[in-house]
Design goal:
Oligomer: single chain
Number of strands: 5
Helix content: 40-55%
Largest sheet: 5 strands, antiparallel
Shape: rod-shaped
Number of helices: 7
Strand content: 5-15%
Number of domains: 2
Structural class: alpha+beta
Distance between the termini: 113 Å
Length: 266
């Protein structure tokens, strides 16, 4: 009497033993590596982006870009390893174990790649102090450069090469618009002026003499900006800025015999 077909098939195809799972340890380690890469990438991206959003501090003394690129690269590697390990485990779970670890690695790696997009949306919805400071500094830097070129044009228009009596004269001569003299984000009207201006200077004066400098609030964390006779603009922190102003006032008084006349903002 013949045996059932099921019995014959079981005898012809012996069951795979648990020891067969060790025949390809590389793939098992691949799933574990995908899990490790995904978790590390998620932690790095969350620490960089969420930490900078809610607690803007310098991270481990390193530029944020380096840590940001590192987390992004780790997430890509984890995603690739996770996909390969999951596909292999799907077709042969005995020889290629670790499907659960591979799936977790895929999920964590994908989440790490999505965190930058989430932060960008958050910044667009909620104004960030860092972005406002950068924009304020950029406007103040651009305005000082425009003032420098306008002063140079004004000095070329008269034979003596003298700068105007005040910065509003540049607006009168249509060399500059009134909006470039005031920082509207500080609540100042366009007719106001946020810059200190030294009167009585000429384009032939020493190049390291100060013509104008911006209000401290316009410079943000970089400190006030200084405009020199030759048109150069520098941004100094509070202590170097104070020393530079004192140096100029001493040299001016030594050459002219009187202290310089500085018009305040207004």
């Amino acid at each position: 009497m013949s045996e059932p077909l099921s019995s014959q098939s079981e005898q012809s195809s012996p069951r795979a033993s648990p020891a067969d799972a060790l025949t390809s340890p590389r793939c098992s380690r691949m799933a574990t590596a995908a899990l490790a890469f995904g978790v590390v990438a998620l932690l790095v991206e969350a620490f960089v982006h969420l930490g900078q959003t809610f607690f803007p501090v310098r991270i481990l003394g390193l530029p944020v870009f380096q840590l940001l690129f590192g987390g992004f690269a780790i997430a890509q590697v984890g995603l690739l390893l996770g996909v390969i390990a999951a596909v292999r485990s799907r077709f042969d779970a005995v020889r290629f174990p670790g499907q659960r670890q591979a799936i977790i690695g895929i999920v964590t790696s994908a989440a790490a790649l999505l965190i930058p997009a989430v932060r960008i949306q958050w910044i667009m919805i909620r104004p960030h102090p860092e972005m406002s400071n950068v924009m304020k500094l950029a406007r103040a830097r651009a305005n000082l450069n425009l003032i420098a070129s306008s002063l140079s044009m004004y000095a070329k228009m008269n034979a003596a090469g003298a700068f105007p009596a005040d910065l509003h004269a540049l607006v009168t001569e249509q060399l500059l618009t009134s909006e470039k003299l005031a920082e509207t984000s500080l609540g100042h009207a366009p007719a106001a002026c946020d810059y200190y201006y030294v009167t009585g200077l000429k384009k032939d004066d020493p190049v390291d003499w100060i013509v104008a400098y911006c209000d401290a609030a316009s410079g943000g964390e970089k400190g006030p900006g200084i405009l020199y006779v030759d048109g150069m603009v520098r941004w100094l922190e509070e202590r170097p800025f104070t020393r530079e102003i004192q140096r100029f006032m001493q040299e001016f008084e030594r050459c002219r015999g009187t202290p310089p006349t500085i018009l305040p903002p207004g």
